[in-house]
Design a protein that fits this description.
- There is one protein chain.
- With about 650 residues, the chain is an alpha/beta fold.
- Helices cover about 40% and strands about 15% of the residues.
- It folds into four domains: about 200 residues, no CATH class; about 200 residues, P-loop containing nucleotide triphosphate hydrolases (Rossmann fold, 3-Layer(aba) Sandwich), CATH 3.40.50; about 80 residues, no CATH class; about 130 residues, Rossmann fold.
- It has 22 helices and 25 strands.
- The strands form six sheets. A six-stranded mixed beta sheet has the order 7-6-3-2-1-8, with helices on both faces. A six-stranded parallel beta sheet has the order 12-11-13-14-10-16, sandwiched between helices.
Length: about 650
């Protein structure tokens, strides 16, 4: 039997050698037809043409390579590359001219209802011997040895998409000669493909993902989105819009475009510490040469690091001891108004301290945005101030501790007193609706704290998952005339969208400052189909039924998430999945890279992420919102927003378990 296997392997190798030689001769003939190319040029251009799905556009002219711009373009699954033949790195001004010309070649290139994003063109300097590319460079150097890694390292386009881009660009620019590997006489076939059945071969997960519509944002954007990528705001700006409309995608593309065109540091931050790491992997694909200039970090971590750099060492409070001691003396009165102590802790953290209130008079006069269902008259607020807030502050001072609001205040004061010597060229705040007012003010201060500061706020008040609310005008951030609302849903398939839109989620964050809001049910859906299922389940059987539904779901586990309401519930479900031999990982450690495990975590951790399939358990509403009042109404509205956020993480399939006794 072994001699037969050896025979077939040897035969397969011979066939591969023949195919390779046929392809090599064809490439040689195509390039020989362009007499202005030197032997070195031909060797470089043969690299992409030896692969299926790649296309080369070569500029015809009396002088080659042409001065001031790329002499050729390579277009394939790895993306679009401007090929610059040179012996040394051009000057900064010459590089800007090269990029401007390269982007012009692919501007306004239409694919269906979307357009190619011009700054996705990567500039490759082809040199006899590649230099080390500096981390902050807006180009990549390559020689014949390193060129394949540059072109073929990571797929960004489907073969059909690459072909359409190359053909359209060639049709529009008659000075380019198009050579397409699709015209090669013999298809490239590996030995293993000839010896084994296709079912035995496993495609790379990322390559399979490129066949799905959601991955196209890497290279194609809706015209309205692309316009926002290029718009010059000259000051703080705001992108809003319901879930799935591509707000963060546009923000990441703005960052990538700036990284490729201008110097300076970039910051992407959010209230949820895991979200920046999740989006960083996508950004690195958009701007692989951004290096350390682009920083993705949670606001909490950024603030603590900044204060330590300035010589402060805040002692952050551990646990709830300071609040618990204050609650003991106030609960007899406040417990009769609202028995849940978390409600009152949020009153301190997100209303009083979260809005920077320093005096009882201020607290008496403010509108408690997002918490007005529980009316607190002047006497009640005075009691809260004197018997809960002030004792809480005294407890912190007695132990020389700080809560996160104190750290925010310290950072704002320090930045106002001594602004950074190396300011950011752009600060992007994602999921801004979950910030407190003082956190919003800190983000503005990080960006410079002026009416012209490069601050971009991204979010949707309908997706707020923490209590409270604010108006942008309260933070002193001027965005009039520098805002945009995205209205087309690109993430959720029709069935998922329609089910999620049934959630009557209220918006308590007025980021439009009085302009009419735009909610999920009003968005246009572009992806048909999808599946939305729900079941009525008992509390006792809820977790087991969810795990059973996960095990029966055909979607890859790498693209499946169980989104919970609490960390405790997430731990319980992970334990059940483990017993069912279903691998899982905590959502808080997920950074967007491929892992064949079900992601499990709270809705707070799932913010800004998306998955092919989502599973979620929630209490079945006992009665309509109109019949609820006080803190119970506030909690019910918050639960609806959280449920809507969980459901809209799903692209293709959503399962929701409605729990009842």
């Amino acid at each position: 039997m072994s001699w037969m296997i050896d025979h077939w392997v040897e035969l397969g190798m011979c066939m591969a050698d023949i195919r390779f030689e046929q392809r090599r001769r064809w490439v040689e003939q195509q390039l020989d037809a362009l007499p202005f190319l030197t032997g070195a040029h031909r060797r470089f251009l043969s690299v992409p043409l030896m692969r299926n799905g790649w296309h080369v556009l070569v500029e015809r002219g009396d002088v080659f390579p042409p001065p001031g711009h790329a002499g050729a373009f390579a277009v394939g699954p790895g993306g679009v590359f401007a090929l610059v033949f040179t012996d040394s790195v051009p000057s900064e001004s010459a590089l800007r001219q090269i990029r401007a010309h390269a982007e012009e070649v692919f501007t306004n290139l239409v694919a269906g209802r979307s357009r190619y994003v011009p700054h996705m063109v990567e500039v490759l300097l082809l040199m006899p011997r590649a230099d080390d590319t500096p981390a902050e460079a807006r180009y990549t150097t390559a020689d014949l040895t390193s060129l394949p890694q540059c072109l073929f390292a990571e797929p960004k386009l489907s073969k059909q998409g690459a072909r359409q881009i190359a053909m359209t660009a060639a049709d529009r620019n008659i000075r380019y000669e198009l050579i397409s590997s699709d015209s090669a006489p013999v298809p490239e076939t590996s030995v293993t493909e000839g010896l084994f059945a296709p079912s035995a071969l496993r495609d790379d997960e990322r390559t399979r993902a490129l066949g799905r519509p959601f991955a196209e944002w890497m290279t194609f954007l809706d015209p309205a989105q692309l316009e926002l990528v290029h718009r010059n705001f000259n000051g703080p700006a705001r992108f809003s819009g319901p879930a799935g409309t591509g707000k963060t995608v546009v923000a990441l593309h703005r960052m990538a475009r700036l990284a490729k065109h201008e110097p300076g540091r970039l910051l992407f931050t959010s209230f949820v510490r895991t979200l920046p790491a999740y989006h960083e992997s996508g950004f690195r694909r958009l701007a692989p040469n951004a290096g350390d200039r682009a920083e993705f970090i949670g606001l909490h971590s950024w603030t603590v690091r900044f204060l330590r750099e300035r010589g402060y060492e805040p002692r952050l409070v551990e646990g709830d001891n300071a609040f618990s001691r204050a609650w003991r003396n106030a609960r007899n009165v406040l417990g009769a108004i609202e028995p849940n102590p978390h409600y009152w802790k949020d009153e301190i953290q997100r209303v009083i301290k979260g809005r920077g209130i320093r005096k009882l008079k201020e607290y008496r006069e403010i509108d408690r945005t997002g918490r007005e269902r529980l009316a607190l008259d002047g006497d009640r607020r005075e009691f809260i101030w004197k018997h809960l807030y002030e004792p809480y502050q005294d407890n912190l001072r007695a132990r020389r501790e700080h809560d996160f609001n104190d750290v925010i205040d310290m950072a704002i004061a320090e930045l106002r007193a001594a602004p950074s010597d190396d300011p950011y060229a752009l600060v992007v705040v994602d999921e801004v609706q979950d910030f407190t007012l003082t956190e919003l003010m800190l983000a503005h201060q990080i960006a410079g704290g002026t009416p012209n500061s490069p601050l971009l706020l991204v979010g949707d008040g309908q997706q707020q998952v923490y209590p409270g609310g604010w108006r942008l005008s309260d933070a002193g951030i001027p965005i009039v005339g520098r805002g945009a609302v995205l209205r087309i849903n690109y993430r959720n398939r029709e069935a998922v969208h329609h089910y999620a839109a049934r959630m009557d989620a209220t918006n308590t964050v007025d980021d439009l400052d009085g302009e009419p809001g735009f909610v999920l049910r009003d968005t246009e859906v572009v992806l048909p189909g999808g599946t939305a299922e729900y079941e009525i389940v008992s509390h006792n059987d809820a977790h087991a039924r969810l795990v059973r539904a996960v095990s029966e779901c055909p979607v890859s586990r790498s693209d499946t998430a169980v989104i919970t309401s609490t960390n405790r519930e997430a731990e319980q479900i992970r334990d059940l999945l483990r017993r069912s031999n279903i691998p899982s990982m905590p959502l808080e450690y997920y950074d967007g890279t491929h892992r064949n495990e079900v992601k499990v975590g709270t809705v707070h951790r799932a913010k800004g992420m998306d998955f092919a399939a989502v599973f979620h358990l929630v209490e079945e509403p006992a009665q309509s919102l109109g019949r609820l009042a006080g803190g119970e109404r506030d909690r019910a509205e918050l639960t609806l927003r959280q449920t809507m956020v969980a459901l809209t993480r799903a692209r293709d399939y959503v399962w929701i378990g409605l729990m009842r006794e």
